[in-house]
Amino acid sequence: MISFKRKPLSKVAPVSSELAGRTAIITGSTSGIGLGIAKSFAASGMNVMLNGFGPLAEIELMRKAIEKEFGVGVAYSDADMSKPDEIADMVMRARETFGQVDVLVNNAGIQHVEAIETFPTAKWNAIIAIDLSSAFHGIQAVVTGMKERKWGRIINVASAHALVASPFKSAYVAAKHGLLGLTKTVALETAEFGITANAICPGYVLTPLVEKQIPETAKARGLSNEEVIRDVLLHAQPTKKFVTTEQVGALAVFLCTGAAASITGAALPIEGGWTAQ
């Protein structure tokens, strides 16, 4: 666990942002969508706690780079999202470092692509634990403080697969549908406390997770990698373009602003028209 003291508001840039000085935890943020959200938050003036796996030296360079570029406090937790005690410890350390947790982004996720009849039980359990149960544990750890302060933002990074299914992804689709249900329930429970809970539902973003799926899907469907990209992944998105991490990050920032205060319990697709079909 690497942490740094909260920076005074006057030193956080840009000071004109309504979000300057607030603090966000973004799980699974050492790469991909989570890192894109973390950078967007930092650009808005928020302190951020990164979380995820990877070489510690590389993560430290990343942490320092974000801190230097945006002038905000940046901390890192290596909490394992499959372990509730470590999730609670991450939240506690964020409070110790920055004073409070204003925003929680549940982004951590894993994937496995295989036919249901051979889908390994261990893979099912791991995906449910990390893609769904970790969000429950994180929300449980932050929501009391948010209620006390009458302000909070909970953002669950679901997927277009929270809205529609695809073959060979039984655990992932089940977890993401469950995450959307959790989002709606939390939104209802916190609606009178100045807290919003929403689910961002991206389509395919070219992240390490998606890159890993390409050969797995090719094997499962008997296709080449190129055919998977063209005929499976981008076939689902009418724009024929991958969603970018910057686009997802911008949506996450918007959900934290006052302009989005009446958006809660929503599933917000950002998937190039996939679910419009």
Description of the molecule:
- By secondary structure, the protein is α/β, with parallel strands linked by helices.
- It folds into two domains: 9-203 and 244-271, NAD(P)-binding Rossmann-like Domain (Rossmann fold), CATH 3.40.50; 204-242, no CATH class.
- Helices cover 46% and strands 13% of the residues.
- The protein is built from eight helices and seven strands, in the order βαβαβαβαβαβαααβ.
- It has helices at 32-43, 56-70, 84-98, 121-149, 170-190, 208-221, 225-233, 245-256, and strands at residues 23-26, 47-51, 74-77, 103-106, 152-157, 195-202, 267-270.
- The protein has a seven-stranded parallel sheet with strand order 3-2-1-4-5-6-7, with helices on both faces.
- Strand 5 (152-157), helix 5 and strand 6 form a beta-alpha-beta unit.
- Helix 1 (32-43) packs across helix 8 (245-256), helix 3 (84-98) packs parallel to helix 4 and helix 4 (121-149) runs parallel beside helix 5 (170-190).
- The longest helix has 29 residues, at 121-149.
- It is globular, with a radius of gyration of 18 Å.
- The chain starts with 22 loop residues before the first strand and ends in a 7-residue tail after the last strand.
